[in-house]
Design goal:
This protein has a five-stranded antiparallel β-sheet, sandwiched between helices. A hairpin with a 2-residue loop joins strand 8 and strand 9. The protein has ten helices and ten strands. The chain is an alpha+beta fold.
Length: 308
């Protein structure tokens, strides 16, 4: 993997962007971003964010930067994403309009009003222009598993013992509904920005058309919501309580935990970033196993096939 850009090198690259060329600017590192670097660029004329991508040639995570660019523009058109100012794949940089507001954390999702605002933003995204590409965690998990095995990366010892349960969930979900909408697919708390009454959604690396309930279930897991809060979140999204949709979102959340475990395994074996990817992976894996072997799985599989 190529070494990260220094501030001096990045500043030289930013001179290639017409909106920044010849203008004094200040650079400020932003937190977050385990597969990219985000830098706030402040000028007298405006404030921007430069998303600096890792070396695409060694990317094993299935990220398509051209698709990310297209879908980020679509999210802006839907009214929930940042405006794309410029995109230079040759430089590995996408320049976005900076969003005012506060980046959320998991504690924020314990506030009932946040669930309503988040559900509204997700619904707006899903109602917007179709994205390029598709995202299906069942397909992604298969690809990630091949990458892990082919490269000899560390894998939880009993990971494959749960493959039959994972496949059964896939069978039921596929048989009951194949609706897809434009999804972010990675809505952890840090990808929500609260701006007064408005909510922005950022980071479209894994975006693609997908089951809306994957978005809901994955967000439930990544933000640390309880199952009761998942019920409220799904009800806020659909405008009423639907047993089959709540069960579907719950199952897709489990699917996400099992699949993203492998993302952590790949990063643990390949990334130069100083971060405990193994601990990150095991947190999701242990959550998935608890659901696979717990008392509620059979009921969820029944509920997802119910009429409401």
């Amino acid at each position: 993997m190529s070494p990260p850009l220094t501030d001096v090198q990045l500043d030289e690259l930013l001179e290639e962007f017409a909106v920044l060329a010849g203008r004094p600017r200040q650079l400020q590192e932003l937190s977050g971003g385990l597969t990219n670097r985000n830098v706030k660029v402040t000028t007298a004329d405006g404030i921007y964010v430069a998303r600096c991508c890792a070396d695409a040639a060694t990317n094993m995570l299935g990220i398509d930067r051209d698709r990310e660019h297209h879908n980020t523009k679509a999210a802006a058109e839907a009214g929930v994403g940042a405006q794309v100012i410029d995109y230079r794949p040759d430089l590995g940089i996408m320049l976005l309009r900076h969003l005012d507001g506060r980046t959320l954390c998991n504690d924020d999702f314990q506030r009932p009003e946040i669930l309503d605002k988040a559900a509204g933003a997700v619904r707006a995204l899903h109602s917007g222009p179709r994205f390029q590409g598709r995202f299906d965690m069942f397909e992604r998990q298969t690809a990630y598993l091949k990458t892990v095995l082919d490269n000899g990366f560390r894998l939880p010892a009993d990971y494959l013992e749960h493959a039959d349960t994972f496949d059964e969930i896939a069978r039921v979900l596929t048989a009951t509904d194949q609706t897809t909408v434009p999804c972010n697919n990675d809505l952890l708390a840090g990808n929500f920005i609260e701006d007064g009454d408005r909510m922005w959604l950022i980071d479209y690396e894994y975006s693609g058309n997908n089951d809306p309930c994957f978005e809901l279930g994955n967000t439930w897991c990544e933000t640390g919501m309880s199952t009761d809060q998942l019920d409220d979140f799904v009800a806020a999204y659909y405008g009423r309580r639907l047993r089959n949709k709540t069960a579907r979102a719950h199952l897709q959340g489990i699917v996400g935990k099992y699949g993203w475990t492998l993302w952590g395994c790949i990063q643990n074996g390949s990334s130069a970033i100083e971060f405990d990817f193994w601990d990150w992976a095991m947190e999701r894996y242990e959550g998935a196993v608890a659901e696979f072997t717990g008392p509620n799985l059979a009921r969820l599989l029944d509920d997802v096939q119910a009429d409401d």
